[in-house]
Amino acid sequence: MTKPSGCLSPDHSLSRRQMLYGLAGMAGGLSLGGLSEPAAGEVLSKQQKQVLLIFNDGGMSQYESWDPKPGTIFGGPYRSISTSVPGTHVSELLPHTAKQMQHLALVRGLNTKNPSHGSRAQAFDGQPKNRGVQYPAMGPALASFLHRPESPLPPSVLVKPYSGGFDYKSAGFLGSKWGTLMLGEGRPPVHMQRPTSVTDAANIRRNQFRESANNRFTKGRRTAETSAYAHSFDMAEQLMRRGDLFDESKITARDAERYGTHKHGRHMLLSRRLLEAGVTFVELRSYHWDTHSSNFDLHLTMMGGFDKPFAALIEDLAASGRLEHTLIIVLSEFGRTPKVNVGLGRDHWPQAWSMCLAGCGIQGGSVHGKTNARGTWVDEGQVGYADLFHTYFHALGLESHQTEYVNAGQPLPVANEDAGPIKTVLS
Amino acid sequence: MLWFRIVSACVLAWLAATAFAAEPLHQRIDSLIRDGHNGPVADRSTDAEFHRRVWLDLAGMIPSTVETRAFLADSAADKRGKLIDRLLTGPHYPIRMRHAFSVMLLERRVADADWDRFLETSFRDNKPLDHLVRELISADGTDSATRPAMQFWLTRSATDHRLLARDASRLLLGRNLECAQCHDHPSIDDFKQAEFFGLVAFLNRSYLYKDKKTNQTFFVEKGTGPKEEFTSVFTSKSDKTGPRLLRGMEIMVPEFASGEDLATPATDGRPPLPKFPLRAQLARRLASRENSDFARNMANRLWAMLLGRGLVHPLDMQHAKNPPSHPELLQLLSDELVSHGFDMKYVLKQLALSETYQRSSRLGDSADAVKSQTYAAFEMRSLSAEQLAYSVMQSLGTLDRILQAPADLVATAKYRPDKGDPIPTENLDNVLKLFQSIYASQPGETEDGFNPSLAASLFIANEKLLLKWLEPQDGSLTAKLVKTGDGQLADELYVAVLSRRPTQHEEQSVQDFLAKHPDGRQAAIREMTWALLASAEFRFNH
Questions:
Q1: Which helix (H) or strand (E) holds A182?
Q2: A58-101 residue pLDDT tens
Q3: Cβ separation of B317 and A11 shorter than 8 Å?
């Protein structure tokens, strides 16, 4: 059996929520000033739940991060350190994060079974049963329930190294409107910069003339599409006004020091600012976690790039109160092998690894599951991607066994029915 | 099945002879639309509205100022019909249809210039649609006349036969069977797993053959192959099928002894060819007068092209639970398509002549309440990437210059305005690519309905090429406007960009804008022109 060809059919994509977003939402959005003022962002975000996924592509080693086994045969050279939560220890490569442990929950009993890089797709869609449809990835999936149609910002944004664009496929059957805006190298869409030949005054004048032309035209005609079109100009103006989000010269000295000047730190800071601006789902992706050789050297560098800005992010979101309604997910494709190979690398090990959660609906300081003394297998509380998926929904206040997509009249479960939420880590 | 053919032929002959036949098709369309709706109906479109609309639909761009003025001044009663005839035989029609059918058939997958030429020739010659589709299905590359047609398959895949079956069914039969890959459709009784695999069985011998000497590729078939086996993920029941179309029988495929299944072996520069090519069988059966699914699908797609939405909508969801909004009308259109030998121009002309097509999109305060499938008002739709590119050039007076500019000898790197890249060389290829990068869907994605995007509004607002075109330069609109007296300016501007005369109120707002502008006349002209280009009225075919 080959895999089914992707379900692209409009029949699969005409969900109720898409209709809301595409039509009523667009029309309704006209009346909103939106996020040009930070204060408006504050109000909106107090009502809205948001998600930040930090995806370390490849596998962050559980030994060198959330589940250290110092002094054991597979433990590697690094020590473990105590954290702000008594009894919970993490690798010494996480000194700053350790101080934020009261906000974090650890899932240490992951067995995701699939050792291939294809497991990324499973991490993202939570392994639903095959219904012959292309399920949306985590961002569009969660955003389709959380996103407010009047928001002037896209529902799902990915901050990543390399190229950007628009990933409509991530939306699966939800349809391309739910796709992900990808900010390659943290950069915005290609036409964000207004040429200097167009002054602010000229821009206001030309848009006023455009609006008066629209007012005449739309009278007596169906409004859904014309309003959506007009709204897209408002969105563009608003995003352009938030050019500061992408302007590195606007970064405060304090943020620059705490988040660092390296790429991952800058992207972590951009992610925080996108959340503050009101984006529903932000993914921050980094690559090169596939440490088949020089695992220990690489983790020294890469954990260094992760630890300090991540701790700063948690600290900032907690201080601003945003953490209460923002779910943070730190995930990889899989863990890394206990056995160290001849190149001093660790290979793929999906059988026993860890991930981290924080924020909205999460019990800070909790730990779920346990691996054995050498960290080779899960002893207690074994869970997989599907359980994690249920947990995200529950943390966001959505009962995952009750919540369904309505896809062309066909109800579809949001997560694999055979799994369930990890209650230990839920608040 | 001979008796069946005789009966159908008789029925068709009888239909053609009934009282209906005296009345032209476009009037029969209108009476069926009237029968289906008893609420308010929009007025007849103004000449200017109709003129812009039919230019976009049949020529792929808004009309030039000269065309618009001439049409508005023409007092002949039959000027709309004459215009339709002129556009259908004009130079833009084959290009417009090539764009429309490339989007429909390839769904933004990229084919080469041979494919473009093949389609343009087909539409210029008004090749019957069934004939064209048979070439798409069966072309294997050995006949130079139809060789480009094999890109219908090859832009998708040469090896993923299920993908090919899925798209053949969706696009050529209007039946989206993809759910039926894994199981009989749970809610649509007539989408069966056996139907999907019957179609796969026509395709599963196809493979890409590359001639080592000439490096030429062919999409040919093996002489033998297995039946398609399938298992339902619901019931775990397994079955198998040979090639079979919906409502047809599984076809008898002759078995050949090993080594005897080829009609011709590979010879110098030619691929091996089987004795019994299955795609030729598929072509003959699928794109035939006897296959009502095919005629209905094509009729529905032509209707959607001109009327903005399918009688069955979405276009690939023809099944019992998604009936047409006007069943008799769809039947009539597909019958007419068949009885006129799949003559596309005939159908397009009749559609464009109908009062349904010629209605205004303005319906008064109740516009939002009236359902679109009543066709009480003209269904607005957004311009495609290509219609927009041509229309922007037409309105700003850059079209002739761009069409004459030579293509790049070497393709340049992707244009990145955010990296400060200079504007690419101004030729048709680069302009189309630029608009497609913003307005077209992704390869493999169906273009269906209006999809507003930040990328598009940012493009209109900030793209340097557009801003450059707004500056007065040789032959450009703003150069002309700068030299036009205040009294005539609004008229020139509105006719060029919106293809209609301005209202009195609009004349006044143009005067006011000019009078109040702090930076002088040229700046005012630039800003007003931009505003009309960015207006909803320009963005939509209305």
A1: strand A180-184
A2: 999 999 999 999 999 999 999 999 999 999 999 999 999 999 99
A3: yes
